[in-house]
UniProtKB/TrEMBL annotation:
UniProt superkingdom: Bacteria
The 4Fe-4S ferredoxin-type domain, residue ranges: 241-270, 284-313
Alphabetical list of InterPro entries matching this protein: 4Fe4S_Fe-S-bd, 4Fe4S_Fe_S_CS, Fe-S_Ferredoxin
Transmembrane segments: none
Source organism: Muribaculaceae bacterium Z82
Protein's UniProt name: 4Fe-4S dicluster domain-containing protein
UniProt KW keywords: 4Fe-4S, Iron, Iron-sulfur, Metal-binding
Annotated segments matching region Disordered: 1-34
Pfam families membership: Fer4_7 (PF12838)
UniProt-recorded Gene Ontology molecular function terms: 4 iron, 4 sulfur cluster binding; metal ion binding
Amino acid sequence: MESAFARGDYRPQRGAAPSAASGLQDATDELHPGEVAPTDQELFEAALAAEEGTAVFACARIASKHVGDPGKFAEVPCLARMEESLLLAIAARGVQDIVFVDGNCATCKFRACNKGIDDTVESVNGLVEAMGATPRVRRASQFPACALVEDVDGLLGDARRDFFFHTKDRAKDAVAKSAEVLVFKSNNPQIASLRERMMVSAEGTLPQFDPERHPRALDALYELSQPDGPAEDEVFTRLFGSVSIDSSLCTSCNMCTVFCPTGALRKSDEVPDRDGEEEGGIGSYLEFSAADCVQCNLCADACLKKCLDVSPFVPTDDLFSFEPRLIWRPDPPKRKGVLSSVRRSK
């Protein structure tokens, strides 16, 4: 089958906003805008100023030791802040070596995130390798030579001045945050609008969000791929997912579409050909978009017949195709009438 790259179906979405971990961050951004710090843009700009093609990200714990030069690395509260779409975008801009420098995670208050950081590194490297590209992400316990501080005394002096300079700004932020809490606790129309957002839609689905980081990840993968397309036919990833349904067990209850949080799995307006041999002239279609799937498994959990499977193995042709994949399912079984089980006495 000709790939989406060869057909020219896929084109990077240049106007797309930045998009498991990535999907959760999308939902957080939507409900609490501006509370994710540092922002994606700040981290992206810091990475583009990389020394010798190496972008360094350090957790706050090891950054406080003043071993690394703050002008040569980006500091995050915990390296769990880093996610695939941002790292792929950095790699697509030509950064070959992305280094995570952390302190002693075993004694850190965020130590539960350690496994998740490893998963992120593995996920990004797997996606980049599947595209046939060379950038890699790695973890380290020490700063690389290109990010080490040269003038310790000057650095500490700048840090003291910076602390007092920003004290006033931090006080203003605290006041604004307190005012925001008071407004939220009052009888404000914002509460009503939130209630409206949590209502079931006219199509019978629960509230959905747009995985905005996914388009940026796809754009980066497109840039990282070979001219004739990805190096592999499928990718193993936690960022996207692939859905399959056992049509012999499915009863078309539509519970999977009700609970899909992104609309990746939805009812289709396409009608099966009544003369078709494959569908037998009956049934209906679901539409599945791998690019919108966040592999949350809510559809599989909601499936009453347990006939739906979500796989981390995603065909690259599905991933980069604009058209959703159609999944056929049979017509729902006919329900017996109320009086059908009542025996009439003669």
